[in-house]
């Protein structure tokens, strides 16, 4: 006997389009979603007016950071928190 695929069953979790995490809409709170409101940029800390192109000799960590808070790790915990935003919301 063939087993039917569980295709019709939708998981209760939704996907956050901001942090790409799955979350339970019933437990979504203003502190659920941690994210960076600005982009991870490549430029010098000490010259934020001009875009800085990395030279091959430059250490990569010298010029990469989040524009919003200065965190230098790409996976640094978000400096802002808010509700998760599902793809259903607009
Ligand atoms: Zn940040
Ligand atoms: Zn989120």
Q: Quick gist of this model?
A:
With 90 residues, the chain is mainly beta.
What does this structure look like?
The protein has 90 residues and is mostly beta strands. It has a domain at 37-83. It contains no helices and 6 strands. The strands form 3 sheets. Strands 1-2 form a two-stranded antiparallel sheet. Strands 3-6 form a two-stranded antiparallel ribbon. The mean pLDDT is 80. It binds zinc ion (2 copies). One zinc ion binds at residues 16, 18-19, 21, 33, 84. One zinc ion (ZN) binds at residues 36, 66, 68-69, 71, 79.
Protein traits:
two-stranded antiparallel sheet; 6 strands; mainly beta; binds zinc ion; single chain; 18% strand; 0% helix; 90 residues
Strand order of the largest sheet: 1-2
Low-confidence stretches: none
- Indicate the radius of gyration in whole angstroms: 19 Å
Number of separate strands: 6
| Distinct small-molecule ligands in the complex | zinc ion
* DSSP summary: helix tally: 0
Helix percent reads: under 10%
Structural class assignment:
mainly beta
Strand content: 15-25%
How far the N terminus sits from the C terminus, by CA atoms, comes to 44 Å
Could you tell me the mean pLDDT?
A: 80
The sequence of SSEs as H and E is: EEEEEE
> How would a textbook summarize the main sheet?
2 strands, antiparallel
User: How does the overall form come out from the CA principal axes?
Assistant: elongated
């Amino acid at each position: 006997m063939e087993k039917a695929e569980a295709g019709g069953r939708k998981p209760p979790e939704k996907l956050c389009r901001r942090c790409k995490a799955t979350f339970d809409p019933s437990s979504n709170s203003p502190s659920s979603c941690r994210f960076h409101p600005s982009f991870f940029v490549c430029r010098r800390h000490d010259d934020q007016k001009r875009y800085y192109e990395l030279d091959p000799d430059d250490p990569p960590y010298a010029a990469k950071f989040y524009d919003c808070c200065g965190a230098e790790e790409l996976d640094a915990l978000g400096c802002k928190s808010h509700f998760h935003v599902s793809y259903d919301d607009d």
